[in-house]
Design goal:
The chain is mainly β and 385 residues long. Helix content is 6%, strand content 37%. It starts with a helix and ends with a strand.
């Protein structure tokens, strides 16, 4: 069945699927193919073990919220339930009415320079959004990757509602590939950013570089209190290209990561740990490096965004064109992953929890590596269990 037919079938039916992500090589593009841990590490380790998720679960596609998006990447939910979605290649942020599907461009982010895997990437709302209406964005410029915040004024005309950006962090190395880009506020109200090593392996193990890391900072972009190295933004190192960040019910941080030719990864993140790249890929059992809790052959995943809902991590697959469910089975263990929606909506970029059993899922067929079908790209509303 071709992509167009698969898309039509997927959109026409409410799906209940029960079971059953990639990466380019070292010299090729990453996606080739067609809260917080607690404020301190001690508090995180002391958190109670999560209840076990059922070994099997399900996904129901409730609705197509909107369609016709161009290179969607980041997603954030507003307090009233509407969504903000960033366009990697257009450098814009669009508001989506989740009741009607209406799209309204609220503004552009100045200085965005899209190329390769760079552009306007992750977005997040301030933890004090109700008071300050600040929207944070991670984006690529002509010289580096940056994090900035902008006020969002809904009273202004459409297209002019984003205020001037205040850059809180600059100097993250950029590349044609492996720019990372996911940002999220944790339960400790600190801002976390996943960065890539830009195709230069040496950055990942260089503690002085911001590339190939998970960074933790205050809302003003300063090193967060309790970071492993006081005065440094670096929270963990040894990453190839982190594009998914999410916290579970016990405030533990999880991250998805692209492998090279062998293994993609889901990692349980602990401050100061070294996740191995480029010395190891996947589960190696080598002293000094932290192994992932789950791994996939690169043809099955190419993981991007992740979310936590109903006792499981949900992970969007690019090259794998599927949504993975990874049940959390204990303090440091997971049950066998399940694959859903395989090939039905093409490449999947972002998954975001909306609370309870509801999640949002963003497709990404218009990012130059997919095969767009009618209506691409889309935001789907899912019910998970």
């Amino acid at each position: 069945m071709n992509r167009t037919a698969r898309t039509a079938v997927g959109a026409a039916a409410v799906l209940l699927v029960a079971t059953g992500c990639s990466s380019g090589g070292g010299s090729g593009p990453e996606e080739r193919g067609n809260g917080t841990p607690s404020a301190t590490a001690a508090a995180s380790r002391a958190a109670p073990s999560p209840s076990r998720a059922p070994a099997k679960g399900s996904v129901t596609v409730v609705s197509t919220v909107t369609e016709g998006l161009k290179s969607p990447w980041g997603l954030a939910e507003l307090p009233e339930g509407d969504l903000l979605v960033s366009s990697r290649d257009e450098g814009t942020i669009t508001r989506v009415d989740t009741r009607t599907g209406k799209k309204t461009v609220i503004g552009s982010v100045p200085g965005v320079s899209p190329a390769g895997e760079g552009g306007l990437l992750g977005i997040a709302l301030s933890p004090t959004y109700a008071a300050d209406h600040m929207v944070y964005a991670y984006f690529t410029t002509v010289s580096d990757n940056r994090v900035a915040r902008m006020p969002y004024d809904e009273k202004k005309p459409a297209g002019e509602q984003l205020g001037a950006p205040n850059t809180i962090l600059r100097g993250i190395p950029k590349g044609t590939i492996h720019n990372g880009g996911r940002i999220a506020f944790g339960p400790d109200r600190m801002l976390y950013a996943g960065t890539g090593e830009t195709g230069d392996d040496g950055f990942a193990q260089d503690k002085k570089s911001l590339a190939g890391k998970i960074l933790r900072m205050t809302p003003d972009g300063q090193p967060a209190p309790g970071n492993p190295d006081p005065g440094s933004l670096v929270y963990t190192l040894g990453h190839r290209n982190v594009q998914g960040l999410a916290w579970d019910a016990d405030h533990r941080l999880w991250a998805s990561e692209f492998g090279q030719d062998t293994w993609d990864e889901l990692n349980l993140i602990e401050p100061g740990k070294n996740y191995g790249w480029p010395e190891v890929e996947g589960k190696a059992g080598r002293r000094g490096f932290t192994d992932p809790l789950e791994q996939w052959h690169t043809s099955e995943s190419s993981p991007s965004g992740i979310a936590y809902a109903e006792g499981s991590i949900w992970m969007a697959g690019l090259r794998g064109e599927r949504l993975w469910r990874i049940p959390l089975a204990g303090r440091e263990s997971v049950a066998a992953p399940q694959a859903f929606l395989k090939g039905q909506y093409g490449r999947l970029r972002t998954v975001l929890s909306a609370g309870g059993d509801k999640v949002w899922l963003v497709t990404t067929e218009t990012d130059s590596r997919g095969t767009p079908g009618p209506g691409d790209d889309k935001i789907l509303q899912l019910k998970v269990s």
